[in-house]
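Summary for the steering committee. The consortium agreed at its last meeting that each partner would contribute one worked example illustrating the joint modelling workflow. Our contribution is presented below. We chose a case with several input lines so that the handling of multiple components could be demonstrated. No manual editing was applied between input and output; the record is shown as generated.
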Amino acid sequence: MMFANSYELIVYILNLFGIYEPINNIFKTLGIEYVLRIIIVLVEIAVLFVFALLTIMFLTWMERKVVAMVQARYGPMVTGPRGLLQPVMDGVKLIGKEDIIPAKADRWVFTLAPFLVFIPALLIFIPLPFGESLIISDLNVGLLYIIAISAVSPIAILLAGWASNNKYSLMGAMRAVAQDISYTIPLALSAIAIVLFTGSLSTVDIVSAQSGTWFGFIPKWFIFLQPLGFLLFLIASIAEMGRIPFDFQESEQELVAGFFTEYSGMKFAMFFLAEYAHLFSVSAIVVTLFLGGWSFPFLDLLPAGLVPLVSFGIFLVKTYAIIFFAMWLRDTVPRVRIDQLMNLGWKIMIPLALLNLLATGFLLTAGVF
Amino acid sequence: MAWISKNWTMFGIVKGLIVTMKHILRIGNRPTVTVQYPYQKMKVSPRYRGLHAVDENACIGCGICEVSCPNETIQIVKYKTRWYPQVNVGMCLFCGLCVDACPMNAMKMTGNYELADYTRESLVYGPDRLLFNKEV
Amino acid sequence: MKTEELLINMGPVHPSTHGVLRFKLIMDGEIIKKCDIVMGYLHRGTEKLGEMKTYLQFVPYTDRLDYISAFPNNYAYVKAVEELAGIEVPLRAEYIRVLTLELNRVVNHLVMLGSLLLDLGASTMIMYGFRERENALQLFEMLCGARMTFNYIRPGGVREDLPEGFMPKLNEFIKDMEYRIDDYEQLISGNEIFMMRMKNIGVLSAKEAISYGMTGPSLRGHGVNYDIRKVEPYSVYPDLDFRACVRNECDSFARYMVRIDEMRESLHILRQVVDSMPEGKPTSQAKYGIAPMTGAPTAVSTYFPRIFTPPPGEVYSRIEAPKGELGFYVVSDGTIKPYRIKIRSPSFCNLTAIPKMVEGLMIPDLIAAFGTIDVVLGDVDR
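What follows is the complete predicted structure of the assembly.
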């Protein structure tokens, strides 16, 4: 059976063990029954946080291994078995670095900026359906919330560039913000075309609209109904994250340094952790919107107790497939120049996204789907 | 702009992705080629020009190697009542002209290339470190 | 609105310039208005050192000029000395020399491709290039004992004959390279992003390129059919069948495509050399000058002149190095050491065309155009 969110799943499991009612009664007699709710929610969030951090560490290892496989070499092999402890060693190294703050920089803003970049990347995880009934909170406006939170990162980037007191960092920050904003628009437009199909912004509704099959074996995923939207969304999200081919920020070969030159040690690590968290969450969004989330054609044949676990596994497989594609693309193509990037964003992708929206609306009202 | 509308399929990028995928899957003679130094080392060929070695019995201390060195790194010093070459490995070019010049064929170069050390003085290899005895 | 021009310094320590080279850029916003090049950070006084060494002792110093491709440097100097002294070289030695020259041309172009794409952001091409280069360097190590500074081509021939097992390995290398070059073309040449970065960037007309003294593959990308192996043939090139690779669009993409074509032509030449390698001795048999090395029973350069005195005179001889025209002007005054050696290096002359090429471009374009000129700082600064 499917619960609305994981809070209810935890309550159901506690009920199965028979310990929910006694504890609830204790709190009720003390008059503070809401404390139990808070404790359960905190446990959920802790689990999510640990999962996010573990995933980020695994992604740094995976990126280096995938790059090495493409380049006919091995990658990290020495630290831990096959190099699996490499992220831990990187973290230890970065913690040991001296934390330098430039003399004339604005200290509070300088220290605050990395966290402001990292926290929205974690906040996106809240309305994502990791499996059947494994969702922290099924917001009614889930998709809008996701797009809005992703739009907070330009502010944090500007703060980082301004607080460094370095004119090249400021120019780099302004360019990063320009890139971010120009690619959020096609992203949002492609996502809206999905809403035309489901009629609701909630992510759980979007996933359940993609269950079922045509002809018995082709799953009803939106990628088949919206191929152009999928491509646009994928390219726009790679551009927003600042990966190659759109990563002139991190290219040491361009002159103007990126906005994080003055950062060292753990603050520098936060920017990169934020980038990998963003990578995972954006891939999860792509999977939810276009590839059917956790649904798979023959999932309802399994016994009801196993479905959350199996659906979680399917979700992870699909997300890592998209992440692998992003890493694969990174190794193959060179960088796009900045004015060509702006060209691509404004003159090509926005008209195509609007066209996509128009065509979808037209075909829907004509009753084709 | 017109160029992009002619190539909008981006087929070239797809072909590049196919090549990279062939490397990931290691198909068609595309193996992993790196050697995990220092746990595995590559073998050097017999003609490799590494550290010098002087045959104790054949060397006559004539000094032709000293004269033919472009960098003047070889000096003939007295060792155990005979005169043998001393090589300053820090300045040596490893060019092999001393090997070519030796009339007795006593000067040779081995395959030892791991010569890094901590002080400049320890890089001067005297006859005690260079000599070898062929009958032993 | 008042704007002013900004002086930006792409200093000697920079991840993309291929060595220590400094650009002083005067920029108006994003566009470069004027570019000054400051070089000399790697100057080691090679030409002055040549006046204090004998002719044979100078050969290791020529290795270190253009350290990516050391065989052509050796050969250009040795050709000048042989013309000056009138030394005859056996045919087998000439064939071995051409083998090493063409192999080195392939290897040099691999490094150029790799570093060009590394500057543009794709880091896989340099790894593939160095994987191929490793095979070639193992061949070189088998041949002469070193991987980068060969010291193999001497006045009178080459140092030693080919070792056993060299020919099969060379044939394997040629076969491998054929379809690896197909891989590279599929990976890069059709890539739309690469074409966006390279087409119509760094344009110079053919007349301007000639007036700046550009030579080599960079000039042949401008449509000028000038290959010294065809114009003034040397060694056994008149007997070999090959063509000079020319492209007509004068931009960075043409200069890049010329090098891919040249790699294939070099493999073609290598196959011909391997098929028609004559028998014989690798060094010349006649005795010149004083102090020949006799008596050494291992037959390493037995008839090799170690110290010789060419007659007084001067000579300028040039070859087609992988980067352009490499020329040595050697003046002798009858003693065992040369009086003056002057090196005309291709990278130095090609580099002077950069300021004209990048006017009106942005900095990423400067980096892309600079990568196609194929500059090695050892060659520029000597």
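The longest helix of chain B spans residues 11-24. Strands of chain B lie at 52-55, 74-79, 82-88, 107-109, 124-125, 131-132.
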